[in-house]
Each structure stands twice: as structure tokens, then as C-alpha cells.
TrEMBL record, chains A, B:
Main localisation: mitochondrion
Places the protein is found: Mitochondrion intermembrane space
Gene Ontology cellular component terms for the protein in this record: mitochondrial intermembrane space
Designated name of the protein: Sulfhydryl oxidase
Organism: Vanderwaltozyma polyspora (strain ATCC 22028 / DSM 70294 / BCRC 21397 / CBS 2163 / NBRC 10782 / NRRL Y-8283 / UCD 57-17) (Kluyveromyces polysporus)
Enzyme category, top tier: oxidoreductase
Pfam families attached to this UniProt entry: Evr1_Alr
Residue span(s) of domain ERV/ALR sulfhydryl oxidase: 74-174
Any Gene Ontology biological process: cellular response to oxidative stress
Length: 180, 180
């Protein structure tokens, strides 16, 4: 991050920069990323007029040349990436065996270890790595894993100031649905 | 799957059952899942009247008791799970180092191996396992990995009868965006 780059985005969140000094797409909201890269202008949250009314995110909905279906879609921002990845992780726990084999337990542990190194939002990955160091994944059964992951998600919810999910209901939210 | 359960859903796709004989949520579309579990009725695609006009998916948008924000949302179906997981995987490739270390290469290989065992849609996981047996992950650089994953995604697009994505553009779609 060079000295003339903003430290805070339109949403009021701190701007995260990559090691090469460029703003990180998967670590910031799309709005903040576009603000810090000069694609949109506006005043940060908390200034006299509201951010919503002073900026505009241009639509990039044109088709890619040569394609009939693919639009020029932006890469996922930190929020879309988070939502998507939780979808995958909770669904994975929902399909984990009720009685996993030693190999399945070992692979699930390895998975979370590697995941904490490769998750594209670096600061999220660091937080997750710290979380699993202090709260080892519980892989002895589907229900254990589902609840452990729900707790891990709640720790993130807490950081974001969001209500915690009732982990007694993880199974309904991610496995059976609400009708059964 | 017992003999009185349908083999085909409203979308015309084959219904996938779990080992316990129950329909698999993460392997079928929500529409087909609701059809096969009797939550909606309707005629399969290809019958005299169109499926769209003869069935109705009930809204499950009520809040969970005790929560101010969480709705009774259905677990992801095969399509939502697929879209979410590709978001995660491509973003991961976009953040993979340009010059990865031996450990990073090894972890990426392990990751895909484990991923092919734990992906919640079983038949998708089996297909992916076969794919990586025949097309080992290319983990020597970010661009190699990004293109390899784009090819893997295209193989799925092909199976679904969907247009292939131009893999020369993987970097714009998943890393830089289209403005640069």
C-alpha cells in the first residue's frame, strides 16, 4: 500500500492490500475495491452526505466477445466469496459420514489445515488458521463436524457484528431443510 | 431408491438417491428434490402441459424462531452448490502464487485429491475424481492452475450442454476483472 492510497473504503471498512501493494479483490467489498481503484467516486460512510447517494457502480453486464451467454462479470468480492464458501463447507459437513473411517477423519483434518492456507481472502484465512489452532476441527461424526463448523461460522458472525446462528439447527439449515 | 420412487424429476433430470435410499439434496435441483419428496406436484418436462405452469415451490421465508435475521432457508441444491464452489475454487486459483513453493504445490495437489472425496454432490465428486486421475492438477504456477481449473469447469459445462468458457480469459473473470 503506497502512502497516497486510502486506508478506508466507502463502507467504512479498512482497505486490504496485497503484498504487491494492489488492493485485494477477494479481501474487500466490490464497492470498496471500485472506490480504491478509482472506478467509482464517493464519500466514505460518516461524511456529511450518505455514501449511497454520491457514488455509482457501473454495470458491467455486457457479453464477453465471442460468447452467447457469459457476461463480463466481476470476480467475487469478500462477501460473495464468503457466502459461497460457507455454502460449500456446510454442505460438506452435511454429507460427512455419521461414522467416518480413520481415513475420512484424517482427510477432513488435512482439508481444514490446507484450507486455512489457500482461502483467497488472506486475512480471513489467517483468522481461520488461528481459530483451528485454538479449536481443532471435530471430525468424529457428522453432527460433531456440523456443530464445530457452525461455531466457526458464528465466530465470524460475531466479528462482523452479526447475530449468531443457533447451532442446534445446523442440521435443518444445511442438511434436512425445515419441513421434516 | 425403492421401486415406487420416481427415477426422473420435473426438470427431466435423473433423480439421485443417497445410499440410505433418500433423495440427495446436494445432487438434485431443489425443484426435483421437492417433487420427489412430495412437497410439490407437477408433470415432468415433456408431458402435455409445461412443468412451469403445473407446480409451485412454496416459499419458506419465515424467520427461524428466536432469530431476527435468519430465515428458514433451504440447504443449497446441486446448482447453488456448484456455483458457490466454482466461486471458491476459481478465486483460490486467482490467489495462488505466481511462483509457488514445493509445499504450496504439494498442498494444492492434496487439496484437489481430498476435494474429490468430500464434495457433497457424490456423482459430481466421482466425475471430478475421474477427471483429475486423467488430467492431473497443474500446480506449477498461478496461470497453469487457473487454466487447468477453467478446463475442468468446461468439462462440466460440456456435460450440461452449456457453452465453454474461453480459458484465455480466466484471469479477467476471476482475478483482475474486465476494466484493466
Amino acid at each position: 500500500m503506497s502512502s497516497n492510497q486510502p486506508s478506508e473504503g466507502l463502507t467504512g471498512r479498512k482497505i486490504i492490500y496485497d503484498e504487491d501493494g494492489k488492493p485485494c479483490r477477494s479481501c474487500n467489498t466490490l464497492e470498496d475495491f471500485k472506490f480504491v481503484t478509482g472506478k467509482i467516486t464517493g464519500k466514505p460512510v460518516g461524511s456529511t452526505s450518505s455514501a449511497k447517494s454520491t457514488h455509482h457502480i457501473p454495470k458491467t453486464s455486457k457479453l464477453i466477445p465471442g460468447s452467447k451467454i457469459y457476461e463480463k462479470q466481476d470476480p467475487p468480492d469478500v462477501n460473495e466469496l464468503g457466502k459461497s464458501t460457507w455454502n460449500f463447507l456446510h454442505s460438506m459437513a452435511a454429507k460427512y459420514p455419521v461414522n467416518p473411517s480413520s481415513q475420512q477423519k484424517s482427510e477432513m483434518n488435512q482439508f481444514f489445515n490446507i484450507f486455512s492456507h489457500i482461502y483467497p481472502c488472506n486475512w480471513c484465512a489467517d483468522d481461520f488458521e488461528k481459530y483451528i489452532r485454538e479449536n481443532a476441527p471435530r471430525v468424529n461424526s457428522r453432527d460433531e463436524l456440523g456443530r464445530w463448523l457452525c461455531d466457526a461460522h458464528n465466530q465470524v458472525n460475531e466479528k462482523l457484528g452479526k447475530e449468531k446462528f443457533n447451532c442446534n439447527l445446523w442440521d435443518k439449515r444445511w442438511r434436512t431443510g425445515w419441513d421434516e
